[in-house]
Amino acid sequence: MRFQIKRDQTTDSNGSANHSLDSFKKKNLFKTRIGRYIDFPAHEQNDDVIAGHLSFSREALHACPPATGSSEKKSHLKLPNMDDWEEDQSPVVSCSSGFGLGSNGSDGGFKSFYTGGAGNDKSNSEGTEGSSWKMTGDSFRGRGGRGGSRGGRGGFSGFKSEIDENGSDGGWNGGESRGKGRGGFRGGFRSGSRDENDENGNDDGWKGGESRGRGRGGFGGGFRGGFRDGGNEDTGRRGFGRENNENGNDEEGRGRGRGGFRGGFRDGGGDESGKRGFGRGGFRGRNEEVFSKVTTADKLDQEGSENAGPKVVYVPPPPPEEESSIFSHYATGINFDKYDDILVDVSGSNPPKAIMTFEEAGLCDSLSKNVSKSGYVKPTPVQKHGIPIISAGRDLMACAQTGSGKTAAFLLPILQRFMTDGVAASKFSEIQEPEAIIVAPTRELINQIYLEARKFAYGTCVRPVVVYGGINTGYTIREVLKGCNVLCATPGRLHDLIGRGKIGLSKVRYLVLDEADRMLDMGFEPEMRKLVASPGMPSKEERQTLMFSATYPEDIQRMAADFLKVDYIFLAVGVVGGACSDVEQTIVQVDQYSKRDQLLELLRATGNERTMVFVETKRSADFIATFLCQEKISTTSIHGDREQREREKALSDFRLGQCPVLVATSVAARGLDIEQVQHVVNFDMPSSIDEYVHRIGRTGRCGNTGRAVSFFNPESDTPLARSLVKVLSGAQQVVPKWLEEVAFSAHGTTGFNPRGKVFASTDSRKGGSFKSDEPPPSQTSAPSAAAAADDEEWE
Ligand SMILES: Nc1ncnc2c1ncn2[C@@H]1O[C@H](COP(=O)(O)OP(=O)(O)OP(=O)(O)O)[C@@H](O)[C@H]1O
Asked: Is the pLDDT of residue 506 over 60?
């Protein structure tokens, strides 16, 4: 476990804190927060190491006076305990005695901002913060409104200026301006770091800081708004809208202040929405993320555009080139042959006949060889049906259970077509025009798909390329310009490259949406529509559009039809939205306060089994992973606030078994194919049943068996009960009596189940959805918590 101060504020590019304890003290920074806790083996948990990671000397550490109310010598490094957590959800390391706001949570929003120092009660004193603030004012003040924003923030900005490696003026200026308004805190920092990284000049930072400092936008959104709008005083609203940046620096604000505020803002203001934001839901992450959903468009900027924030310098290590690594695979499990027994429903006119073997797929030699080197002996059902459908030129919406080989089902026929017809895109062009574009919702998933494409295309003339956010754009462009036939992309970076004229769409023959229901829900639908309407993109009649997922809510199916030819084929392997029956599912009734102990007990019992622990919020992910490390369980974590380098490292440590426990938010729920994940734990139940199906599908893949244990807290999870009962019985799992009762009591009492979605039992064109006890589609097409729960997790 490694502690860092919050990285965007204080860490260098290696992820280590780069300032001294003195700088905290000097700048009245009395509190700081646990940042990331990565890669810090449990046995290294002692002051020396922790201090080392923070660049503190042991002496400095111990010279530090104890935190208020504590006589404990090491209280400056005291980890949060669950009680603190429950109250204020903010794991805080006290660096010294201090009085940052709201140590008990009531003013937690601002605590997040480390106001520290003087001025704690100068709340909202900037008249110019005006209406945006007031819109949700009550709630805002309730939690975080009393800001001490000037004093505290000013100090902090100074601090941050100080840590600007380059000592650029931008940082200082930002800091100064920040001092004037609460927004300044972030804005200034960003302006500083922007300067630091901005290759094109650095006045922006200054201006950003200034505007944020003065305007209401400054509070959190100001960072973005001010930044982008270059000093516009009136950027508050925009600022708020843009705050959810991928770099995670708004974490505290989202958690408390900003999340709530955002909620209010999106809902058009008013106390009610404000309350939602600032209420429990908001600060715990659910509501906050619901509301941030709309800002997906912003993520385009954040993800791809260098104009949108500090330049991303991370360049991922190149994937291994040795054949053995490229083709490394895990064995199919004992239930692989049972796939053949799953009922398959193919609808649409004249569906091509299924193949029974890979030989029947008519793959060229290279592809055939690559298939067998991958350990594939016979196709899975989705491959048996999907490959000939795609080869016949038909559009396809395919639904098959998690881990059943959907990726190869679309890659193989596409590559085969390219091998037959030849590919055009060449490296001698300044604009690359891929013949296939594959999109997926997360960086890790798209990278995995790319690796699969690279594997199957091995030794052929087809060149797959991957582009996603969080890595250096220049590097990405250079990779693309080396030639690109199959472009694997997350939407944000894709649009960015299209906008930069590096990717042309006119040669696209295949458009593939993996996790299609996710790609078409609230978060990504606009981006997908924008993509198909982009200049040069062939119309749906001229291209082939392929959609794959394990879940397809009916409303999404209907919408998906907009992207497909009228005669598309719907392929359902098993029950649409059904869970993988190779996963043994256990639902445990818990209350919120016993979860942690139960988790510990469970992990101790499972020993070194590779386990994914899903939690609902990024903050919880940090907290639970920290907690497990303390308990000497080697743990890492992945969530949307971690830098890409950290995310990839975490995943790699987990894959290699170096950290057998991975705590994850929903960012890791879909698609990830990791060998030997024997166990999934839903520490928090997900926001939707679809998410549940995807999460537990990280185990029990490709005929292997797995186990999933879910902590069900009736207080918060009852809306999921009915769908859960359905999924359990659909997968022939034991349904606990108490869950049936909860589900029954929920029935009729909740007219609208905001966390459930409509299952489509089959092709929605047949009108065959389970409607009897599920909410009507019109209701579920509202912004779903599911879509939102992980807003910032997705790309
Ligand atoms: N025919 C096959 N024979 C052996 N292994 C296969 C076959 N098809 C796929 N696999 C392997 O099964 C695993 C799961 O495949 P894949 O990731 O494509 O599943 P998926 O259906 O896309 O899952 P999810 O819904 O979680 O995205 C991969 O390791 C893949 O290499």
From this structure: yes
Of residues 288 and 547, more confidently modeled: 547
Give phi and psi for 546, each to the nearest 5.
-125, 135
Which residue from 407, 573, 675 has its CB within 8 A of the most atoms of ligand 1, so it is best to mutate?
Answer: 407
Maximum Cα–Cα distance for the chain, whole Å? 78
For residue 82, CA distances in Å to 193, 454, 611 come to: 34, 45, 22
Q: Is the pLDDT of residue 590 over 90?
A: yes
Q: Which is more confidently placed, 139 or 450?
A: 450
Whole-number Å distance, alpha carbon 700 to ligand 1 midpoint, is 11
Radius of gyration (Cα) for the chain, nearest Å? 26
Contacts of 219 (CB under 8 A, 6+ apart): 129, 133, 182, 183, 185, 186, 239, 240, 253, 257, 258, 261
Distances from the Cα of 528 to the Cα of 31, 41, 518, 672, angstroms: 43, 42, 11, 22
Eight-class DSSP state of 527:
H
What is the complex's ipTM, to 2 decimals?
1.00
CA of 382 to the centre of ligand 1 (A): 10
pLDDT digits (tens, 9 = 90+) for 301-340: 333 333 446 678 899 999 999 999 999 999 999 999 999 9
Query: Which range is least confidently modeled, 107-116, 177-186, 649-658?
Result: 107-116
Cβ partners under 8 Å of residue 570, min gap 6: 345, 346, 347, 348, 396, 397, 398, 399, 557, 762, 763, 765
User: Which atom of ligand 1 is least distant from the CA of 445?
Assistant: 27
- Residues near ligand 1 with C-beta < 6 Å? 329, 332, 375-376, 379-380, 383, 400, 402-408, 550, 671, 673, 697, 701-702
Q: How far is the CA of 571 from the centre of ligand 1 (A)?
A: 17
- Check: CB of residue 413 under 8 Å from CB of residue 390: yes
Q: What DSSP assignment string belongs to 553-565? A: -HHHHHHHGGGS-
Which protein residue's CA is at the shortest distance from atom 10 of ligand 1? Answer: 405
* Beta carbons of 674 and 686 less than 8 angstroms apart: no
Residue nearest atom 2 in ligand 1 by C-alpha distance? 376
Q: What distance in Å separates the CA atoms of residue 292 and residue 491, rounded to the nearest whole number?
A: 17
What pLDDT does residue 523 have? 85
The one-character DSSP state at 452 is H
Atom of ligand 1 lying closest to residue 672 CA: 26
* Contact indicator for 390, 414 with CB cutoff of 8 Å: yes
Cα atoms in the 13 Å half-sphere on the side-chain side of 22: 3
Q: For strand 344-347 and strand 436-439, is the pairing parallel, antiparallel, or unpaired?
A: unpaired
In this structure, the residue with its CA closest to atom 25 of ligand 1 is 402
- Please identify, by atom number, the ligand 1 atom nearest to the C-alpha of residue 675: 29
Q: What is the pLDDT of residues 208-242, one digit of tens each?
A: 333 333 333 333 332 332 233 222 322 222 222 22
SS3 state at 471: coil
What DSSP state is assigned to residue 357?
S
